[in-house]
Amino acid sequence: MANIVVFGSQWGDEGKGKIVDMLAEKASAIVRFQGGNNAGHTLVVNGEQCILHLIPSGVLHAGKKCLIGNGVVLDPAVFCEELDALAKRGIDVSSERLMVSKKTHVIMPYHCAMDVARESAKSDGKKIGTTGRGIGPCYEDKMHRCGIRAGDFANKELLREKIEKALEEKNVLLKHLYGEDPIDAQAVYDKIEPYVDRLVPYLGDVSSAIQEANEKGGMVLFEGAQGTHLDIDHGTYPFVTSSNTVTANAASGSGCSPRALDRIVAIVKAYTTRVGGGPFASELFDENGDYMQRQGGEFGATTGRKRRCGWLDMVVLRESVRLNGPTELAITKLDVLSGLKELKICVAYKYNGKEILYPPQEQNGMAYVEPVYETLPGWDDDITGAQSWDDLPDNARDYLKRIEELSGVPVGLVSVGPDRAQTF
Ligand code: IMP
């Protein structure tokens, strides 16, 4: 059965969790391949809300294997908290169905301290607005080749040694550069130790587990986190996250061949949002933006921050299509736009006196573009009960058709509300 990759085509928060949850029904395994608990996937099942930050959204489906790949950064405290919260709801979180790659890097308390210290030291306008979850510093250690991997938890002596070594350098920075108190290695070890024995039974070979699922004829679903324009290479650098969020990383972040990625689903919010700092060409500062923020309940699932809102940006989406190769689009939150008189779509940017169809590649170039809009009529009807294309008003269908034309990719799924059932 063809494997599926789901990715965010904008700046994250496109509603991936819900679509992953839906597609998970047919999967035999669901794997996360990048990011960490900076993500927040909000799911509503039978009217009950569940927010997951780390464990794949597919966990809500009984019997599915949930895998955390090598490309993820894992905070063991958050992992254990999520295990407990899910177990309380009666969900099976045994090591029979949940696996963490031995190669996954672990977020330590000093990564969070570095993340927060760095952000506080930046002046306004330079702040990235990170989630403060230690994501960047953990990936830095991975590249610096001094990171702690989940597999190291099986060797407490090695773990202790690595903590001590890491702190030699971090404490110099914390104390002398950021004016913070140094961190004691023993205190870090004591804080982490309760999670060590809990994590070890979950350690495994995710790469082999994917292969095995495929060999048995099962489908593997790759669950992306964040969005393409937060990608460390291709996003609006430096206002990005620290991992590759593009679909190519589904292969290297989990340990499979790129040839294993068959169907690629781009999650596209019907408008655009962004949390944290960084340029956002189609951002709105008027009543239309307030309307989207209110109707869409646009608050970050991880930090609770208000999300910035704006019109759908096809320049951003066109770049996502080029980078990720989607076979279809899943349009989410279309219902949020009901009630707006007119809808604008940003079709190009004016930049340095020219009209461009792709984002500029200079650092922060997007901060200097002027959006070029096309205007379409809105609709007033409540579409939250729509179950098919035919149930949508003409103007909503025209909006979707225009997205297909401008992106060159067919719309395969439409979501008109938070519940599993509000999708066709
Ligand atoms: P970090 O990933 O915590 O380092 O944050 C870097 C940037 O990515 C900040 O602007 C965050 O707001 C943003 N970010 C990280 N994770 C998410 C997410 O899941 N959704 C939306 N934005 C995110």
Provide structural commentary.
It is a single chain. With 424 residues, the chain is α/β, with parallel strands linked by helices. It folds into 3 domains: 162 residues, Adenylosuccinate Synthetase, Chain A, domain 1; 95 residues, Adenylosuccinate Synthetase, subunit A, domain 2 (Orthogonal Bundle); 135 residues, Adenylosuccinate Synthetase, subunit A, domain 3 (Adenylosuccinate Synthetase, Chain A, domain 3, Alpha-Beta Complex), CATH 3.90.170.10. It is built from 11 helices and 19 strands. The strands form 5 sheets. It has a 9-stranded parallel sheet with strand order 9-7-5-2-10-1-11-15-19, sandwiched between helices. Strands 14, 16, 17 and 18 form a 4-stranded mixed sheet that branches. A two-stranded antiparallel sheet has the order 3-4. A hairpin with a 2-residue loop joins strand 16 and strand 17. The longest helix is centred in the middle third of the chain and has 22 residues. It is globular, with a radius of gyration of 21 Å. The mean pLDDT is 95. Bound molecules: inosinic acid (IMP). Inosinic acid binds next to helix 4. The site of inosinic acid (IMP) has 22 residues, from helix 4.
